[in-house]
């Protein structure tokens, strides 16, 4: 009997010990919320034709988003979501989250010992955009809140040569773009009006108060010392675009996606580029500015390739291009002999992707991606003698625009670069190309600077792996975690956005908070992205779009096979343009994810095709015929939903989009396991970031 008591006593001690360990752990599991039962949504027979294909959609009634019936249905969905989050468990979760805002400093510029940024400030309740000026001498910073009522995001910052004026580009809620001005000396926003465009356009200072700006078809010059009515046109495609027989003829507006203009560093030339979206062919002109009567010279025309202007040395112009180089190279074109047969290769293509380049003191800074990892080199102007500068292996390195050297200034400041990461707020550095070192503008080791700037400093580790997709193609995947990469962890799977894009590594609170909670972030560099250049993109676009889906399914299997996660701990995240691929991977996957989050997606590709732009149609291989329509339907997540065990899903939108509502209703009806499918409208939901993290913690057994 004594031995049994002794054993019971030992068991009690062990139980108490484990209880104390978990009580002190940062990964204490939260109590599970009460289960939510998904509603069974009404279906009404409806049939329509899509390029000769008959389609049944019993959820079409939800397209009348402003009708009383649909509004009542939306309210019931919002109530269901409120039941999930409105509880003591969620309030306890919020109370334990840090309440210090996090700042992400973007598009840095330097003028003397002052540094200027756009600050994307994240707090519990909202995202706030600010103009920020940092004094590096006394480490003080002041912020000016940007409060345009239609502001969705700030996309660029351009600072005048001496730092008095800032021009910043906003993206509106309707996804249009417009430049605005701020006067630091007068501490005021300027009421100057610029054209609103459908695509990102350009603005550049050519003096402390003089500037140029572009619209779809014109480039204008202006001066803040003169009324806006004196702004003048210095280039127009209607005027400058001439046919072979010299008759001036305007370009069709439907062909023009954007018109950008850039003044060369020596202030002698205007470089204008336009992309005709129907054929994806670039047109680039160079217009001399020292002779206004001289016509623009057309350097590039009718070539289906990318040309990014880098710099000029007198009459020699340098471009980063993928012409005959899937992973990019640098070529030069001489204005005196611009014929294509006279173009010269300056920096040849390598096995790594050349993302960008910047000229500095007769040398190149070359920004490469090697299997998704940064490689920054300094080389001679002809590409020889490359020397590596060590950088953060996983971040998005971006060059800051160089300031115009007015008044023949002899001293050229060292290049300025920023490193942006999903998990860490942006860091900004000087690049000393003599010592081959990065020198931080603000040092995160100094606690006062950290607190002053609201920087988040985390020990995030990244590790690159490879897995085989379903057709045996070798696909890279990056795992990120705090401290070190460990097995059997809650894991959030993300994918690139397709369209030839590399991961946008700007700071994302959900990714950062997920890692800091003990989770692993898994980033799949799937085909259709741009990590290996044009060929990699084309291998997952158009008729090959299904390969991007296959890569995600193979990534899930690899994570499970290698025991980095499990079916109870694996979630997936989709945002906007990659959402149909994420949703389709869930449809096709045999191993159910535990959770999924979708933001501002589109899921009914037949509906999307009716208003698709040429770029979207090319991405999905849609040609408005029966064969491509059938292929599109096989990729359409909405069409492919079927009875199965779907993950717990959180569908988030900016507004009441019919496509999202129909996807929600059908997913709820076909869900075969007791896992919630919930809807949130960002415009009416508070604590959005915390709700996403709480949702994942509830579903992934943290």
Largest sheet: 8 strands, mixed
Could you say which overall geometry the principal axes of the C-alpha atoms support?
Answer: globular
The percent range for helix content is 10-25%
Which class do the helix and strand fractions yield?
alpha+beta
Number of helices: 15
User: Low-confidence spans: pLDDT under 50, at least 5 residues?
Assistant: 1-28, 239-257
Number of strands: 38
Distance between the termini: 40 Å
Provide the gyration radius in Å: 27 Å
Kindly describe this structure.
- The chain is an alpha+beta fold and 702 residues long.
- Helix content is 21%, strand content 34%.
- It is built from 15 helices and 38 strands.
- It has an 8-stranded mixed beta sheet, sandwiched between helices. The protein has a 4-stranded antiparallel beta sheet with strand order 3-4-5-6, with no helix packed on it.
- Strand 33 (491-495), helix 6 and strand 34 form a beta-alpha-beta unit.
- Helix 6 crosses helix 15 and helix 8 crosses helix 9 (579-588).
- The longest helix has 23 residues, at 2-24.
- It is globular.
- The relative contact order is 0.09.
- Residues 1-28 and 239-257 have low confidence and may be disordered.
Helix-strand layout with pairing:
Elements: H1 2-24, E1 47-50, E2 53-56, H2 68-85, H3 88-95, E3 102-111, E4 114-122, E5 127-135, E6 140-145, E7 151-159, E8 165-172, E9 177-183, E10 188-190, E11 203-205, E12 210-214, E13 218-223, E14 232-236, H4 237-240, E15 256-263, E16 269-276, E17 281-288, E18 297-303, E19 307-313, E20 316-321, E21 329-334, E22 344-347, E23 353-360, E24 363-370, E25 373-380, E26 387-389, E27 396-399, E28 416-420, E29 427-432, E30 437-440, H5 447-453, E31 460-468, E32 474-482, E33 491-495, H6 509-516, E34 520-524, H7 534-538, H8 545-561, E35 570-575, H9 579-588, E36 595-599, H10 605-609, H11 614-619, H12 626-635, H13 637-640, E37 648-653, H14 658-670, E38 677-681, H15 688-699
Parallel strand pairs: 33-34, 33-35, 35-36, 36-37, 37-38
Antiparallel strand pairs: 1-2, 3-4, 4-5, 5-6, 7-8, 8-9, 9-10, 11-12, 12-13, 13-14, 15-16, 16-17, 17-18, 19-20, 20-21, 21-22, 23-24, 24-25, 25-26, 27-28, 28-29, 29-30, 31-32, 32-34
